[in-house]
Design a protein that fits this description.
Blueprint: H1 4-35, H2 40-54, H3 58-68, H4 72-84, H5 91-104, H6 107-120, H7 126-137, H8 140-154, H9 161-179, H10 185-199, H11 205-217, H12 221-230, H13 236-244, H14 253-280, H15 284-297, H16 301-308, H17 318-375
Helix pairs in contact: 1-2, 1-17, 3-4, 3-5, 4-5, 4-16, 6-7, 7-8, 7-10, 8-9, 8-12, 9-10, 9-11, 10-14, 11-14, 14-15, 14-16
């Protein structure tokens, strides 16, 4: 019969094993997510896998919502994501996405959006960004923005210092682009896109605050005030030269790095993907992470950002819950080891006690044997 103390230890061991088996999948995923927190591509992959497993229809709904919002690029990103994760989609829905993408890439549509970007200086896709960048490369767009905001500054009126700083930096980078035969073009496009995102309210609050502080540092206000006092878009060459003199290149490192990362995102996933990243970002580190995500995931990036939000770029509030899963698993493992130790000790002690009792009985029997022999009658 098994002693009661061993029964209790055995029960504790069985309970710890059962609880550990239940906790293991959650703890394993929590550990993998925490380990991937510095790798946005791996972090988003783990989370997207979970989303797809828990709600396979989520991608199909995302496609439908994107088409309804007139965003075939996002719908196509969802199709790419579904294909990579082996999620079956309705063929009719896939054809609708293909048709919408083809219509958006039609020459007349592209030309119209290019002209819109060139004239208005606002971009939301590749074609309109091309027009906006063309306007900035011919210095028209940056001069327009710098003169407008610079005159607000001279008059003591409310000034968007971020747009002012970006326009001033843009003029300097445009000159470098020409000198380097296009080598600085990604930075030029990145500055333009950040400026456009600011104009249309698609720049994250935290990122806008950081960029505003950085832009303030790159502009020599007195020199700029003198330049815009006599500047005009009708004299682009003279005005651009005067405004560039107000640019402090030694202070522009962080802003240029931001523009470069935005340019990397644009090259991999397009203008809308870059705008999505700028909307979610709270600082330049988020944009750098988004650039790494775009380089790893390509066409899936927009769908990933749509599904996960800022959680695609870094570990957010869920870190505490993940740590709790790991702590629970660790405590369960400790309980299992403690129960195993207790059961081993008690089983060993029971075995030793039983051996002692057996030897004691043998000794008692041996001691009683001569007396039995002496007391026995003679034959």
């Amino acid at each position: 019969m098994i002693p009661r103390r061993i029964n209790r230890a055995l029960a504790g061991l069985a309970f710890s094993a059962a609880l550990g088996a239940a906790l293991w999948p959650h703890a394993h995923r929590a550990g993998a997510v925490i380990a991937a927190q510095e790798d946005p591509a791996q972090l988003s992959e783990l989370q997207i896998t979970s989303v797809v497993q828990n709600d396979p229809a989520r991608i199909a709904r995302g496609i439908a919502d994107a088409l309804a919002a007139g965003d075939p690029d996002l719908a196509d990103s969802f199709v790419t994501l579904a294909r990579d994760h082996h999620v079956a989609l309705d063929e009719a829905q896939v054809r609708r996405v293909a048709d919408a993408v083809a219509a958006e890439k039609a020459p007349t549509s592209v030309a119209k959006r290019f002209a819109t970007g060139l004239v208005t200086g606002q971009a939301d896709d590749v074609a309109s960004l091309s027009g906006t960048v063309a306007g900035d490369l011919f210095v028209f767009g940056d001069i327009r923005d710098a003169v407008r905001e610079g005159k607000h500054l001279v008059m003591g009126e409310e000034t968007d210092r971020l747009v002012l700083g970006l326009a001033t930096a843009g003029l300097a980078v445009t000159a470098a682009t020409y000198v380097s035969a296009g080598g600085a073009a990604p930075v030029r496009a990145g500055l333009t896109l950040v400026k456009d995102a600011r104009k249309v309210g698609r720049l994250g609050e935290g990122l806008a605050a950081w960029a505003g502080r950085s832009a303030r540092e790159v502009v020599d206000a007195p020199v700029l005030q003198q330049a815009v006092a006599t500047g005009s878009v009708l004299r682009p060459g003279e005005t651009a030269t005067a405004i560039r003199a107000a640019f402090r290149a030694e202070k522009a490192g962080a802003l240029v790095r931001l523009a470069k990362d935005v340019g990397r995102i644009t090259e991999k996933v397009g203008t809308r993907g870059a705008l999505d990243s700028l909307k979610l970002a709270e600082g330049p580190k988020d944009i750098a992470r988004a650039a790494r995500l775009a380089e790893a995931k390509g066409g899936q990036t927009r769908a990933i950002l749509k599904l996960l939000g800022r959680g695609a770029l870094l570990l957010t509030a869920g870190a505490f819950n993940l740590a709790l899963w790991l702590f629970g698993a660790l405590m369960t493992l400790f309980g299992f080891v403690a129960s195993l130790k207790s059961m081993t000790e008690r089983a060993t002690q029971a075995w030793l006690d039983r051996g002692k009792r057996r030897r004691l009985r043998q000794m008692q029997v041996a001691a009683a044997s001569p007396e039995l022999v002496a007391a026995a009658p003679c034959g």
